[in-house]
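Hi, here's the filled form for the chain we discussed.

Project: internal
Contact: R.S.
Residues: 192
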Amino acid sequence: MTGNDIVDIKLAAAESNWKRKGFLDKIFTLHEQQYISDAALPHEMVWKLWTMKESAYKIYTRQFGGRFFAPQQFCCTILTETTGLVAYNNTSYQTITVIAKDYIYSIARPAGVKKNNLINSCFYLPELHNYKKQLFIYKKIIASYNSVTGKMKKKINIIKDKNGVPFINCGNNLQIPVSITHHGHFAAFTIH
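And the returned structure, exactly as it came back:
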């Protein structure tokens, strides 16, 4: 099981003033705020920590159900430039983060789980209406799953459960977890 999150750096800079009073206190622990103040590029650290928290949140809600807003309770620890841990409610998730020129992208999986069969793709998302963006992303997911598994595209679709959590449906009650994220001009998915 995986979770993922992406932030379009330019869009985040235009839409979110993370320096406004109270923002950091609402989202980040004091320890995380120290990471931000110590960072050479504080804005990158803000969105790195955010994507780590969001990717862990996606797994947690898939595992335990329910939706809620408690970003400060998802506590991040930076291990290396690209790896970290996120802890929430006695559950830990390991993360891998890529900081590219235009986006920051994190993938989380339960701590202690070794890398295994994971399909992962990050890509440019053209300017489309929301419904067409979703279709574009779904087509990418189906094409990737098809190329890895050989399953016929017409038998693969994306469904969501009652909580809005997406799965790949291949018929015969086989549902494969998929985590989808998009922001601005970038999108990504992981299939596990």
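Let me know if anything looks off before we file it.
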